[in-house]
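During the reporting period the student researcher (J.K.) took over the structure-prediction task from the postdoctoral fellow and processed the backlog of single-chain submissions. One of the processed entries is reproduced below for the supervisory committee.
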Amino acid sequence: MKYSDSVKALLLATINELAADPEKYAKRPGRDFSRNRKLGFKQLLLMFLTMEGQCIREEIYTYFGRSTDAPSKTALYKQMQKLKDGALRCLFLAFNRKLKHNLFNEKYQLVACDGSALDIFRNPHDPDTFFEPNSKSPKGYNQVYINACYSILDRRFTDLVIQPGRKRNEYSAFCQMVDSAGRGGSVIYICDRGYASYNNFAHVIENGQYFLIRCTDRKTEGILGHSLEGVREMDFHVERILTRSQSRKKMTHPELAESYRHICSEVPLDYLTDDSPEYDISLRVVRVEVTPGSFENLITNLPDHEFDMDDFKELYHLRWCQENAYRDIKYPLCLRKLHSKKYEYIVQEIWARALLHNFCAVITSGVKIEKYGRKYEYQANYSEAIKTCRDFLRIHDEKSTMDVEGLIASNIEAVRPGRTFSRQKRFKIPMSFCYRN
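J.K. obtained the following structure tokens:
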């Protein structure tokens, strides 16, 4: 059996496990998915995973064939309405649990955490997602926010927290994903400066994991208690005591007054309670010079004997892989071309695209690209690999075959490290239903 066939069998087995007990994933247990239909529970999930950017009718024809026996659009809508919130997430996590991880130094799983906004169809009457008109969007726009944990060495998503654009909160989403992952294995969470907070640090530490989070000069100075002016490089350990009170009389250790940091009542810190008014935290503050005159601050709890400054530069640079994953999920995987307007169905589509991304990543990682004396090292063209894997998953007649590995290996591109491009921030509206094929 080819590697691609084994991965597909793994995904189909996961779907069959859910299909064996559809009542758990139905809004009305005992009624929904209780009858045999052309578009049953299993076929619904498979079609949902392989949808592209076409109109619903064309999506149905693409999966079932252009025939009068194909299910109607109404049938698809009714079946989608039966899916319980969280059904696609259960499938996503169940499939991920069957996959192995690539480890850094044969010990650590590297997980990048970041968010990305997704523009959805305009609805001024939805206060949770609608943003008022501005210079970039004269009519206003609606948006959801995707928070994701991404396994860097595996090139796949491990968890998502999807929020309405107006209720975006990266801090709470990060804590939720860290707590959901639990204490299994040794994970290093690598995050940008938007995730630097004592509460995030504490959640990772309490779950027995590690973090490497970029931090602004202002926050770093607050942690250290002194200015960074003139400091070019630094690797320093600090012990801090966090408390809600500013009263010296209430300090358990007044002799360590300089180590105390006040956390105001509006800032979340889940481990400060009436029973535990103080929380001890140990941090390692690192400052590195990335380019002449340009410095970055990193807050971590990684041990000194295993990680030095050069390791931190390498690790943090790897975080950019998640930005590429967001690009792939929005464009080759067609997330910008949503098929729904209702928020709950949009969430379903996001989970489906993330699962398909992981399916494609696992297969692509198993394809060996021969060097053949080329000047550069080559890798698979991921956009083309996604299309190949999607068509492969769509095969369900048990007769058609596809040389998945051969097709992926024949569409390659050079790896040229060290190139940098400035990020282009452009407002892009979702594609209207009127312009679907």
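The committee noted the following: The CA atoms of residues 220 and 244 lie 20 Å apart.
J.K. will present the remaining backlog at the next meeting.
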